[in-house]
Design goal:
Layout: H1 6-16, E1 33-37, E2 40-43, E3 48-51, H2 54-57, H3 66-76, H4 90-102, E4 109-113, H5 116-133, E5 141-145, H6 154-158, E6 178-180, H7 198-206, E7 210-215, E8 219-220, E9 226-227, H8 230-243, E10 246-250, E11 274-277, E12 289-293, H9 295-301, H10 320-335, H11 337-353, E13 362-368, E14 371-376, H12 382-391, E15 394-395, E16 402-405, H13 413-428
Parallel strand pairs: 3-15, 5-6, 5-7, 7-10, 10-11
Antiparallel strand pairs: 1-2, 2-3, 4-12, 8-9, 11-12, 13-14, 14-16
Bound molecules: 4'-deoxy-4'-aminopyridoxal-5'-phosphate (PMP).
């Protein structure tokens, strides 16, 4: 029998169900959500919350969207899943057609993966197989920049920040990779090439063993919500070309308009050799990601020297239900309203958040596209802060010293104001450190 008592469910949950990065002995409080529509979540306890998180960058068109619902309903009545080995279907073809209309020219060979982390694993595998095919198997190491985050699986963890990353516990079990310093210049600084000259050293010294560089373009998300200079990325592209190293960009958080450009790489006017997308691909409806490359890499990886095939094939690859929703979400992106929506959010965030940097408890305030960040001087007490936010009618989940929002693109001016007022109120409740 279904138990519809939400308080009992919460109790059961606390005892039996793991949540992201959460203790089973002393879990953080958890809220029971009944439904979500537009840009609001409805809790079972009755509160209606404006959503500042887009369910971790994903729900760009908002919840319970009629077009996305319709795509899901239509697909589930045909089939929700069939294996992708030896079979294909309209949702996968539609999704990839929509996707490759958005990706940079030439980036049109697509591996459909089942989560962001898996798409990073596949990208890494592609780069390793690429060099095996070219009979240079010694090129099998990765270079990345400190402060990054690329997922929770093992190869992805190996390129997360080695110190502050959430994965330092697994150090002994991870492949040692190479870590360049964090970019020194922010997105908004004047470009001074000498500030970032350290980057070249890694290529000069290690290019013979480097398969690829893996980076989050422009915005380092879970590793600190840092936004770095586009010329840094440009320089990386040039060095990769000069020293024959593949460039893998992880656009899982930044893709589909979040930073004000369709993909963050556009800020630097570069194209990667391999890119990963996920999160907003289905507008948060279900898990789906993709690893995208060009004809040259795809064909090299498929060479007989490296076994003749890319060695990856998950059970739920190309899931028709997820692809059908993704195809519709991408169609909406292709319609282009996101540009105006993100620009409007950016202006309002700049107006409402940047001046909060003057408060002594705030170290920095920054806004890029539909991302607003307040970096505090001190760690935030997540449980206490969330209690306050719920009382304010907003859903914001801080981490570390970061209070940040990345709302759905469909948020109204009034809803966004409610989010930024809650953030301002939280800041003003803090004592100077
Ligand atoms: N890369 C980046 C930049 C991410 O932000 C995330 C998710 N937080 C991932 C990879 C991993 O994606 P997933 O959680 O879907 O495995």
């Amino acid at each position: 029998m279904v138990n519809d008592d939400w308080q009992q469910q919460l109790q059961f949950d606390q005892q039996h169900i793991w949540h992201p990065y959460t203790s089973m002995i002393d879990p953080l409080p958890c809220y029971h959500v009944e439904s979500a529509a537009g840009c609001e979540l409805k809790l079972s306890s009755g509160e209606q919350l404006v959503d500042g998180m887009s369910s971790w960058w994903a729900a760009i068109h908002g919840y319970n969207h009629s077009r996305l619902n319709q795509a899901a309903h239509q697909q589930i009545d045909r089939m929700s899943h069939v294996m992708f080995g030896g079979l294909t279907h309209q949702p996968a073809v539609n999704m990839v057609q929509q996707l490759t209309q958005l990706t940079p020219a030439g980036m049109d060979r697509v591996f459909i993966a089942d989560s962001g982390s898996v798409s990073v694993e596949v990208a890494i595998k592609m780069s390793l197989q690429y060099w095996v095919s070219r009979q240079r198997p010694e090129k099998n190491q990765l270079l990345t920049i400190r402060g990054g985050y690329h997922g929770d699986t093992f190869a992805a963890m190996s390129v997360c920040d080695p110190v502050n990353g959430m994965h330092h516990l697994f150090k002994h079990a991870l492949r040692n990779q190479l870590f360049a310093e964090k970019p020194k210049l922010t997105f908004w600084d004047d470009w001074q090439p000498e500030q970032e000259s350290e980057l070249r050293h890694w290529f000069e010294r290690y290019h013979q063993q480097l398969a690829a560089v893996v980076v989050e373009p422009i915005v380092q998300g879970a590793g600190g919500m840092r936004m770095y200079h586009p010329n840094y990325l440009k320089q990386l592209r040039l060095l990769c070309d000069q020293y024959e190293v593949l460039l893998i960009v992880d656009e899982i958080a930044t893709g589909f308009g979040r930073t004000g450009k369709l993909f963050a790489c556009e800020h630097a006017d570069i194209t990667a050799d391999i890119m990963c997308v996920g999160k907003a691909l289905t507008s948060g409806y279900m898990t789906l990601a993709a690893t995208i490359t060009n004809q040259h890499v795809a064909e090299t990886v498929s060479h007989a020297n490296s076994g003749g095939a890319l060695m990856h094939g998950p059970t739920f690859m190309g899931n028709p239900l997820a692809c059908a929703v993704a195809a519709e979400s991408l169609t909406m992106i292709n319609e282009g309203h996101w540009r105006q929506q993100v620009a409007t959010i950016e202006q309002q965030l700049q107006h409402d958040l940047l001046s909060l940097a003057e408060h002594p408890a705030v170290k920095d305030a920054r806004v890029l596209g539909a991302i607003g960040v307040l970096e505090m001087e001190q760690s935030i007490d997540v449980a206490a802060a969330q209690k306050k936010f719920i009382a304010h009618g907003v859903w914001i989940r801080p981490f570390g010293r970061l209070l940040y929002i990345m709302p759905p693109y469909t948020i109204s001016v009034a809803q966004l104001k409610q989010l930024t007022l809650a953030m301002a109120d939280y800041v003003s409740s803090l004592k100077p450190s």
